[in-house]
Structures are given as C-alpha cells and as structure tokens.
Amino acid sequence: MSTTVTQAPPAEQRTLPVVAGPAAVNHNSFHPGDAASDKAFQALARGTRSGTLKLRGIPTFTDVYAQRQWMKEHMAAAFRYFGKKGYGDGVSGHISMRDPILKDHFWMNPFAKHFSSIKASDLVLVDADGYVTEGGAQLPINEAGFMIHSEIHKARPDVIAAAHTHSVYGKTWSAFGKPVEMLTQDACNFYGRLSVYDDHGGIALAQDEGRQIAEALGKENLACILQNHGLLTVGRTVDEAAFLFSSLDNACYSQLLADAAAANGIQKKIISDEVAKYTADAVQGAHNFYTEFQPEFELIVEETNGRVLQ
C-alpha cells in the first residue's frame, strides 16, 4: 500500500547573464508567465532606479529546434553538476526531460555513462513506451529510470524535468520515512511542496512502482523522499529540477547533523509556519529556481571549455 506524507500546504542563448536590460520580444513561451512581470521574482534583485534593468529568468524561443538544443545543453550541464556533487552510484540515477517537439517523448541519460562525462550529444531520446528512437544517441537507457520517470511525466504535464539519484545524504535520511523539517531558510524551498513515498518495493522494474511514486509525488509537490531509496525532484526546467535536488540533499544533510546534535541535548528551533510560508512564497517560482542553477551552469561550461554543450 502506498501512502504519502505531505507538509502543511501554504494558505538558446548559451551565455545568459542573470541580469539583463529590456528583453527582446518573447515568442513561443514554454514557461509559466513572463519573467519581467513576475513581481515575486523581480523582488529578489535590484536594478536601476527607473526599473528598466530586470532579472532575465527563463528564455523563450521562436525556433523549437533551438529550444531543444538549449534544453539538452542545460540537461548535460545538470549531469556534470551531479557528477561534481558525487551523486553517481554505479548505474543508478537519472534525469528525464520532456521534449519540446515530440511532447510524448523525453530525453534521458545513457545507461552506465558517468554523469561527469555527459555531453548534450550523449543524451538519448525515448518514446512514450521507453524505446530508444532516432534523434538522440543510440544507446540503452536505465529500465528502472524509465519506469519511474515515465509515470511522473504522464501524471504531471506541468513537469518538464525530473531528477532522481541515490545521493548519500538523501538516501540516508530517506530511511526515516519523514519529510525534512524547516530548520533553515533554504529548507523553505520545499515548504508545503514535499511528500514522502513510504512503500519501497525494491528496484523499479515494473510500472506499478512508478505509478505509486507518481501518486505519492502528487499534483503540486516539487519533491518526494522515496523511503529506503533516495530523493526525487521535478521542475519546469531541468535547471530547476537539478537545483532543487541539490537543495533537498543539503537539507537532508543539515537534518542528519541537527538530529545528531539534538540527541545530545541541544535543542533545535524550527522555523514557524508563518515565516516558512513567507519565504516559500518569495522563492518557489519557476524563474527563481531556474536562475538559482545558472551560476553552476556557467561554471561547468567554463570548466569544460564548452565541451558539455557538444
């Protein structure tokens, strides 16, 4: 039986500077809302007194093929980032990303290729049944990864990307079958948007396990802790899913440290619901979570001399 535990809900441009001047005309938007008019997002930074200097947010495209390439480049960078963070564990771990052209297809990492060596051209395009198709690398994918991710994409049309690995802190905290507490401001990224899947059924080689995980994730959550397994995050961009995964893994690390200290008599102070909601309302936007990942994206492009984009 699958159950969920959810916290109380609240009442191809390759060089993308975080701040830009007046934006070009937007066409074929693939994200919710326009960054320039997103007041919560724009409130996170300060530009000119006239208000013409604004945060750029998620770019938009007139050419869906350029959009696809841009998305693949950011997906490859997300894998490189996961490699730097040590999230790889043998052949476990995957990111999926919905294709902007073939909406029932999505991109995945090839089986048994190290996260740290992935380039945009290494990504594999699979159809709705999980079979490798033309248009991407002709390499096998992880069967369990498809079983989990395909069900998430079916259940959540708003989700562009989903990320799951067996990161050390995430899978260790998952053994408790509980959400993280609002111990820090960063943990508030997940306030009201985090669930727990507490019915681990072993390696996900059957669709039922994937369906149950998708059900546990729910219709609004950004992340799910898979008991005895690891973490799962989703996003409206692959950048968002990658940033949230790292943020949740860090929150699990903080939780483990805080609980160890508390066991020795040091009292924890939890952020109040009022303050956590206030923080969540400010940060839980698609543009913000996309932007949070851009320093890592730009650094990876620099460190690889652009090879990640190939």
Automatic annotation (TrEMBL):
PANTHER family linked: ADDUCIN, CLASS II ALDOLASE_ADDUCIN DOMAIN PROTEIN (AFU_ORTHOLOGUE AFUA_3G09800)
NCBIfam families in UniProt: PRK06208.1
SMART domains cross-referenced by the UniProt entry: Aldolase_II
Molecular functions (GO terms): actin filament binding
Domain of life: Eukaryota
Pfam families in UniProt: Aldolase_II
Name of this protein: Class II aldolase/adducin domain protein
